[in-house]
Amino acid sequence: xxxxxxxxxxxxxxxxxxxxxxxxxxxxxxxxxxxxxxxxxxxxxxxxxxxxxxxxxxxxxxxxxxxxxxxxxxxxxxxxxxxxxxxxxxxxxxxxxxxxxxxxxxxxxxxxxxxxxxxxxxxxxxxxxxxxxxxxxxxxxxxxxxxxxxxxxxxxxxxxxxxxxxxxxxxxxxxxxxxxxxxxxxxxxxxxxxxxxxxxxxxxxxxxxxxxx
Length: 213
What we know:
Elements: E1 2-6, H1 10-26, E2 50-53, E3 57-61, E4 64-69, E5 72-75, E6 81-85, E7 88-94, E8 98-104, E9 107-112, E10 119-123, H2 139-147, E11 152-156, E12 163-164, E13 170-180, E14 196-206
């Protein structure tokens, strides 16, 4: 899977709003009806020892189901943290037969279990929140997280499903959010926890790992 990033701030928001208004005025409303629901069961991630994730958003590209997640924590068999990143990505190993079986990107061996001797595997092995994940942080964001480690951080959360614009490419507007352990006073110029800090990543996703051109 490949990605491209572009721009930030109000320009993307204005473009997105204008596109939405144009679509609303030029296209008729088509009601969406859910005809059937199928329980697929839990997602299985055999490449990782243990994993806990927030969110979960998917898109079908080139016949592959790609999943995007927010904060992701990898653990050993006793529940000790092996890695923590603000976003991760995976894809269905066999989308036509078993959509619950996933293959994760960025899995690394991180030592052996002291009790069993088995190798532990985690996504983007990093015991801090410094690494953005598959959508990487800028240098300033890395420095902020390094200085404020354990107190507050910024995170990049996909937050929504990507929007395909062809059968093999999709767009995702991924917000950079400010996360704190306790609420702050907005009058002091500090965003409240989880608030969008007005920076967006425009990410182009394509499953073959190459730039679309």
